[in-house]
Amino acid sequence: MAVSLTIPTPPGAGQEVRVRLGKVERVWPDAATALDWAQSQVGAESDLLFVLLILLAANRPGLRGKTLTVNLAAASTLVGVA
Amino acid sequence: MADFKRNRIGAPGPFSSSFGATNFILNQTTDQAEWVFKAADAATLTRVGFRVGALTGTATTWKISLQGVDGSTGNPDGTIKGGGSPCSVTFTNSGLSAGNWFWLTLANSYTCTRGEDLALVIAYDSGTAPSAGVNDLSPTMLGSWTPGTDGPYSIQNDNGTRTKSGGAPVFGYGASAKAYGYPAKAGYGPTPNSGSNPNEIAARFLLPSGWGSTFKVAGVRMYWTPPASATNSFVLRLYDGTTVLQDVTIDDEITPGTTSRAAEFYFDEATLSTLNFGSEYRIAIAPATATNMTVTGLTVDAQADWDAYPGGQDWYVSTRNGGAWTDLVTSRLFMELILDDWTVSGGGTTNIFQVEG
After folding, report:
1. Would you call B17 and A40 a contact, using CB atoms and an 8 Å cutoff?
2. Rg of chain B on CA atoms, in Å
3. Looking at the complex, does the CB of residue B16 fall below 8 Å from at least one CB of chain A?
4. What is the spatial distance between Cα B37 and Cα B74, in angstroms, rounded to a whole number?
5. How many CA atoms lie within 13 A of B249 on its CB side?
6. Quick one: residue B170, left, alpha or beta (phi over 0 = left, psi -120 to 50 = alpha)?
7. What whole-number distance in Å separates Cα of residue B139 and Cα of residue B255?
8. Which residues, listed in sequence order, are joined to residue B21 by a DSSP beta bridge?
9. How many Cβ atoms are within 10 Å of B3's Cβ, its own excluded?
10. What are phi and psi of A51, to 5 degrees?
11. CA distance B166 to chain A (A)
C-alpha cells in the first residue's frame, strides 16, 4: 500500500501549517505551534508520522514542499520523492 | 475563612497545548464522522454542532444525527434516536465555511438522561456522491489542546473502518438555551509586548454570588510561550476594574525558548486581597519589554457556547492598552486561578427574643 505524505512547507509568521496523511489533515495556526506540538508528542502514544513530517520539515530544508511516497506494506520503503 | 488548599478553578478543561485541528475528509458515501459521549445533563436536545475544517462543492446532501451507542464496541449503533420522529437534520455545504463552527437545529428534539450514551454522526444522505476535491466535507474531529481522552472521543469512519482518536473531540449538542460538548472555533494566541496594542491580556472572571462570600487568589496556572530571553520579564496583575489589587514581576524564573508550556506563578503580597463573589475581576499579563510573549487560549463562535465549559459565560478575555478594558467575550485563556481562601458566610448577628407567656 502506497501512501502519499506531503512535507509541510513552513509558512511565514501567522500562516497555517497543514499536514495531510491520507484522509486525515492536521492544521496548526502557525509553524511554531506545529513544531511545539510535534516535540511534545515524542515518546507519547501519538501519530508519529505527523511528528516525523514536521520535524523533518524543520530540519531538512531541501524536503520542504516535496511529496514522499512511502510503501507502508514493505517496511516503510521510500519509493519516491517528487 | 476557609483554607481552599490551593485548589484551582477557571480553566476551560485540562490543557497541554494550543488549539490544533484534526480534520477528517468525507469523500465517499460510506464515510462517517462520529463522536461518542455521555450526556452531561438531563436535557431536551434540540441542536447539534460541529466545526468545518474544509469543504468543497455543494452538491452532496449530508445528514447529522443523534444515535445510540453499541455497548460492545463503543461505536454508534446506527439507530437514529426518535424512531418515527428522527433526531437528525440534512444539510449541504451551502452556508458553511472552513474554520468556523455551526449549530444545526434537529428536525425533532430528543430528551436524554444524564450519563446516557449517545453518538453524533455525520454521514452522506443523498444527492451527488462525495468525491475528494469536488464534493467533500472535512469536519474537525478533535483539537490538540488536551492530552488524549477516552470520554468523550471521536471516530474516523473511513468506508467502514473505524479509527478511534484521542485528544479533546470538537463537537456540540445542546438544549435551546444551553450548549454541551466541546464547541470550538479556533485557538486564541495573542503575542503581546510592552509596545503592542493591546499590551495587557487578561482573564476576566466572576465567581457567582451564590457560591459564597469572599475568596482570595494566590496565583495562577497558565499556558504560554515565554519570551526569547530571561531578561524579558512580564508583570502579573490582579485588577478590580482598572485598580491593581495584587501584582508580581516574573523575570528570573523564566526559562526562555519557543516551546509552549504550562507554568505556575504566585503573587508575592504578604496579605492577599479579599475578593467578593458576584464581583468582576481580571488577571492580566503585561509584558515589560518589547519582546513578544505568547499566551494561549480558545475561541468559540458565540459567548453562549461557553456554557459547555467549566465556568460558563463568566470567563472570557479582556485586553487594554491603558484605559478601559475591551472584552473579547468569545475568547478565553488557558488560565486557572489558584485560590488561597474560600469563605462561605460573611457572619452576622443572632437576635434572641423571649416570648412572654
Report:
1. yes
2. 24
3. yes
4. 10
5. 8
6. beta
7. 37
8. A27, B143
9. 10
10. -60, -45
11. 8
- Is A26–B23 a contact, with Cβ atoms under 8 angstroms apart? yes
- In terms of DSSP H, where are the helices of chain B? none
Q: Interface pTM (ipTM) of the complex?
A: 0.71
Amino acid at B104: L
pLDDT band at A74 (very low <50, low <70, confident <90, very high): very low
Q: Which residues of chain B have pLDDT under 70?
A: 1, 13-18, 144-150, 166-167, 230, 252-259, 346-357
Q: What is the pLDDT of residue A14?
A: 53
pTM of the model: 0.86
Which position has the higher pLDDT, A42 or B355?
A: A42
Say whether A33 and B148 touch across the interface (CB within 8 A): no
Least CB–CB distance from A33: residue in B18, B23, B148 = B18
Q: Coil, strand, or helix at residue A61? A: helix
Find the CB nearest B24 among A23, A28, A45: A23
Tell me the three cell numbers of residue A5: 505524505
Q: Which of residues 23-52 of B touch A (CB under 8 A)?
A: 23-25, 27, 31
pLDDT at site A28: 79
- Dihedral over Cα of B87, B93, B96, B101: its sign: positive
- B97: its cell numbers: 465555511
C-alpha cell at B214: 469572599
C-alpha cell at A79: 519509493
- CA dihedral sign, ordered A39, A44, A47, A48: positive
Beta strands (DSSP E) in B88-151 are 88-91, 100-112, 117-127, 136-143
What local confidence, expressed as pLDDT, does residue B351 receive?
A: 35
Residue B63 identity (one-letter amino acid) = K
**pLDDT exceeds 80 at position A61:** no
Give residue B42's Cα distance to chain centre: 21
Q: How many CB atoms are closer than 10 A to CB B41?
A: 13
Do B170 and B186 form a contact (C-beta atoms < 8 A)?
A: no
Identify any residues that bridge with B295 across adjacent strands, giving them in sequence order. B224
